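User: Can you help me understand a structure? I only have the sequence.
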Amino acid sequence: MRLIFVTFVSIMLSSGVSAKNTDAFVEANLLSILYHELGHAIIDIVGLPVFGQEEDAADVASILLINDLFDEQAATQIAYDAAFGFLGEASAKGNEEEAWWDVHGPDLQRFYTLVCLFAGADIDGRDDIAEELGLPQDRLETCEEEYALAADSWGPVFDELAENAPARTLKYVGGTKTLTEQVISAEVGALNEDFALPSKLIIRVEACGEPNAFYDPQSREIVVCSEFEGWLRALPLED
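Assistant: Let's start by predicting it. Here is the structure, written out as tokens:
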């Protein structure tokens, strides 16, 4: 279990809800994004059936990994910052019409799902988080069941991958100078202690010409674009 962020940034939650484009915010969102793409990779490599949108399944995997891999304080801060990331994305679109045709869910819906599942993992201990982040009571009432269903689906998969760990089935390709490179390279090392995939998975940081991250099933690679860091720092966040 990670006790603190890999860059050793530790933030105490303050009274009131706010977000700033700090290194910790960037790191939390990079981890959330990496776990989302890892969800896609696991679905492909293990050959998991997906009932519904695969993007939704990858979002759920990301939330569960945040909850499972970190201690309470770090997991809570990452969940807050990842949630604010979705709010920032929604705000950045302004009056732009929602792309209802897209395979990803709307940013606000992804925000509420993240909050719901994270709160549902400890409904008594985290109901204040749901309240602070504005999750309606009607949704909160279903969150414990939603988390249980998600854990029943992904949990056995994660447990099976953990049986033969530690292993070196994940390989990092990239530098170690930028924050993005440091976060991703360190997390690849940590994930090799947690999971052993049935085949090799490359995780690389490189310039893509756009702020993006994706899993390529042909080469079995996760690519985290170096442009993501600057984009995250520029997201409009509420003080």
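Now, to help you interpret it: The chain has one domain: 23-234. The two ends are 31 Å apart (CA to CA). Let me know which part you'd like to focus on.
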